[in-house]
Q: What sequence folds into this?
């Protein structure tokens, strides 16, 4: 069997060369709560255990970021004076958990404990998912109904109303001010997805504001795109004024524009993020008002209307941002790879993200599926594609100065200690310590990810028995700041016990 496989590989020009691991690679997972019916049946302690266990599995799969949904429908997965508690936690909007706890603060702490970032995922304009959902009796809708619009069976903020934008900015400012989030994240919901035979009902706001904003009656689409861009600009300005290290990322629908309509579009035939959701995400990246882009490339390689391979090249070649990550759909990862008999498309998709110069990582959807090993994705990440740990690529546009090195690595029993650098500059503050372990007689190579043993939130590490470090192993520590600039290593400590 093995001989036949080798002959087949030789004939097809394929090799068994493993996909090269990267030291710098964003590896995220989306954890959503919208539509979740499980949480409301669980106690606070059970929800906390679910989060812990899920984060354990994400860390084992090599993830270094959790994109955690905290504002799904103008409500909050955390205590807020601006919006009600989300219905997806307790089953009733406005109802606090009993016993009381703060899920966002808890999630941040648990993610950081495991060496992962926490990106707070918010939806800017959606208010309900259907016309059967009951709003909290003190919801903003009842205080200021003129800024909301019913569309299909759902309720939305009107993006054309300045107060809609102002409210969203206040909510995000509140999160950034009160919580140690690493980023704010929006997905693809700006203007709503089209409802057949129904136009979004914003004629009033268009008539009221378009002229003073410089748009004629025939420029409604441009006006809508401008409304969304004004929100993005205001959000980025607000975030950076509060905490300049907190990033702002967008995950758009995977098709920006179709070439049938625009020369610079992709060879696709589907819904256009630009024309139908009125979000010009590439322009935001070029202008520097967002820090990363994660297009949702949820299709298979070879899908006629939206080919994954066509789209990843389109986003890569556009060079819209220096932080382009690919949204990967776990549900299609068992599709066969037509170029590699007996293999699924997972390997080739990972290969493309690592070979294309403009792509710097992946985000897995839905993150809840990874612990379940759906389509064997977790198993292959653990054993193949994300076996080695990776650092997030540095956000050099925000900060390019490396922090000072940690000092005095030493052992006390089975616990390693070191001193993280002290600074009054929050941009140079150590976010994580990076523990490198080199086997005896091995020359230290800090560029090789296989020597990264652990990403640690703190300045100590209890060495487990299963670590298996041999006497004479060389230990060194670096730190990364909040923009993932890495320090020079500490001095080498030689492990002196079995």
A:
């Amino acid at each position: 069997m093995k001989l036949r496989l080798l002959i087949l590989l030789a004939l097809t020009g394929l090799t068994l060369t493993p996909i090269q691991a990267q030291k710098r690679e964003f590896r995220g997972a989306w954890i959503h709560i919208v539509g979740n019916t499980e949480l409301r049946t669980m106690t606070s302690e059970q929800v906390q255990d679910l989060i812990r266990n899920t984060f354990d599995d994400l860390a084992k799969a090599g993830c270094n970021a959790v994109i955690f949904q905290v504002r799904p429908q103008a409500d909050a997965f955390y205590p807020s004076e601006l919006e009600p508690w989300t219905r997806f936690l307790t089953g009733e909007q406005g109802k606090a958990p009993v016993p009381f706890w703060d899920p966002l603060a808890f999630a941040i702490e648990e993610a950081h404990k495991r060496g992962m970032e926490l990106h707070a995922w918010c939806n800017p304009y959606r208010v309900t998912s259907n016309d059967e959902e009951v709003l909290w009796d003190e919801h903003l809708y009842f205080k200021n109904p003129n800024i909301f619009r019913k569309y299909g069976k759902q309720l939305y903020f009107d993006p054309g109303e300045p107060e809609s934008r102002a409210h969203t900015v206040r909510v995000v400012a509140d999160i950034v001010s009160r919580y140690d989030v690493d980023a704010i994240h929006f997905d693809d919901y700006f203007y709503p997805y089209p409802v057949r035979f129904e136009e979004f009902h914003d004629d009033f706001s268009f008539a009221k504001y378009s002229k003073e904003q410089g748009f004629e009656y025939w420029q409604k689409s441009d006006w809508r795109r401008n409304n969304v861009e004004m929100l993005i600009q205001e959000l980025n300005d607000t975030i950076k004024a509060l905490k300049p290290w907190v990033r702002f990322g967008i995950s758009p629908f995977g098709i920006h524009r179709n070439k049938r309509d625009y020369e610079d579009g992709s060879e696709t035939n589907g819904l256009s993020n630009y024309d139908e959701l009125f979000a010009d995400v590439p322009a935001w990246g070029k202008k520097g008002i967002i820090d990363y882009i994660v297009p949702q490339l949820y299709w298979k390689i070879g899908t006629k209307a939206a080919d994954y391979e066509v789209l990843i090249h389109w986003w890569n070649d556009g060079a819209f941002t220096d932080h382009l990550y690919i949204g990967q759909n776990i549900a299609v990862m068992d599709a066969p790879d037509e170029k590699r008999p007996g293999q699924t498309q997972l390997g080739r998709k990972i290969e493309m993200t690592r070979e294309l110069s403009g792509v710097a990582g992946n985000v897995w959807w839905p993150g809840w599926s990874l612990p379940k090993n759906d389509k064997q994705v977790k198993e292959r990440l653990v054993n193949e594609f994300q076996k080695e740990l990776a650092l997030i690529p540095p956000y050099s546009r925000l900060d390019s100065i490396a922090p000072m090195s940690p000092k005095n690595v030493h052992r006390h029993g089975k616990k390693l200690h070191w001193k993280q650098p002290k600074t009054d500059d929050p941009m140079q503050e150590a976010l994580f310590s990076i523990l490198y372990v080199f086997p005896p007689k091995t020359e230290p190579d800090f560029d090789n990810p296989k020597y990264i043993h652990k990403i640690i939130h703190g300045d100590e590490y209890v060495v487990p028995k299963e670590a298996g470090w041999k006497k004479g192993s060389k230990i060194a520590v670096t730190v990364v700041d909040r923009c993932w600039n890495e320090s020079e290593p500490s001095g080498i400590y030689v492990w002196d016990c079995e």
Summary: Residues 1-16 have pLDDT under 50 and may be disordered. The radius of gyration is 24 Å. The first strand starts at residue 26 and ends at 31.
